Amino acid sequence: MSIQSWRNVEDARRAAKRRIPRPIFDYLDGGADDEITLDRNCSSFRNYALLPRALNISKAVELGTRVLGTTLSLPLILGPTGLTRMFHNDAELAVAKAAAKRGLGYCLSTMGTTSIEQLAQASAGPKFFQIYVFKDRGLTREFVERARESRYDALVLTVDTPVAGNRERDKANGLSLPPRLSLKSLLSFAAHPRWALGALNGSRFNFANVAHRVDGLANGPVSLFRYIEDQFDPFISWRDLEQLAQLWGGPLAIKGVMAPEDSLRAITRGATAIILSNHGGRQLGVAPAPVDLIAQHADVIRGKAEIICDGGIRRGSDIVTALALGATACSIGRPYLYGLAAAGESGVGRVLDILREEMERTMMLAGAASTSNLDRNSIMGCMPSFQSQ
């Protein structure tokens, strides 16, 4: 199936499953424990229905928005994903280029396989940098300075990884960094020679932004769980967020917030955006879906910060639903990685084009000429609003 024949994100997922070895696909596709959170992220969108407004169709639907200090062609951010070179040899650069061509923002992960500087040189589009706090706190200060010098638009602090989630698919596959052959995975790797050749002939697999200070792979392959345990600081606090905000002095999102009271606390510590996220269902195995939390956080925040819904987006209509509930924008990870794994930059671009087409069609059918027209009156089946005590 050619990428132009992909009808939806699920078609890209199927293409990715055919294109890459089973252990790599499982890392991309899987979640924690029984994958309840992972399933809930997507299925929760089915609890909401858009209420169309009659005789209100516009010839041109306005999809653009402003978030994290940048103007985007639609309210969608390509969120941070680590280890991207596992899926395609062009890695983060392919993703950033596809996003920039469409006027969308891309967020590079601390755990990325492309450096802050390399990405800045390759992409003229909106750029954000996501930070994990390492035990080596000097890295945080270094990240800020490098992001500032490379003219990144915003920082994103991820706070939901004090320990690695129980990702049983990865444990069963013996996934290591970088990927290595085992008797169990040998047949799957051998059955995907195009992927294997790219992995073998590409640049050395490393975490490009930290290897000069914390080269956890210098002595050979290591499990993802061991790397997180060895390098990440599990004891970060609200003071760390406050210090980061003061050091950066620009748009700053906190990713991984779920409780409404934590959103308020984050804002008082300097966050300008709240990313409602359960890490794609890869951390806590029984967490709520981000879409179900939007209205609660909107009621508590009352416009004091932007709200970004991260998790479960598979259709353009999901983006419209999130906006109607009170989100400023949405963030995706797996959908664009499916495209990347299947067909590189062109695959990412096709997924983004599909989501845009779906969102525009949904807006027209709902009778909304602009994203600013969307509110809870556009939705049926809303969760009860959270009332602060």
Describe the structure concisely for a colleague:
The protein has an 8-stranded parallel barrel with strand order 4-5-6-7-10-11-12-13, surrounded by 8 helices.
SSE class: alpha/beta
- Spell the H/E element sequence: HHHEEEEHEHEHEHEHHEHHEHEHEHEHE
Low-confidence stretches: 384-389
Annotated CATH homologous superfamily: Aldolase class I
CATH architecture: Alpha-Beta Barrel
Number of domains: 1
Total count of strands: 14
Helix residue percentage: 40-55%
Shape by Cα distribution = globular
End-to-end Cα distance, whole Å, is 54 Å
CATH topology name:
TIM Barrel
CATH class: Alpha Beta
Average predicted confidence as pLDDT: 89
Instruction: Going across the biggest sheet, name each strand in turn.
Output: 4-5-6-7-10-11-12-13
* Rg on CA atoms, Å: 20 Å
Compute the number of helices. Answer: 15
Describe it.
By secondary structure, this protein is an alpha/beta fold. Helix content is 40%, strand content 13%. It has one domain: Alpha-Beta Barrel (TIM Barrel), CATH 3.20.20.70. An eight-stranded parallel barrel has the order 4-5-6-7-10-11-12-13, surrounded by eight helices. The longest helix is centred in the C-terminal third of the chain and has 33 residues, at 334-366.
Keywords:
389 residues; alpha/beta; TIM Barrel; two-stranded antiparallel ribbon; 15 helices; 14 strands; globular; disordered C terminus
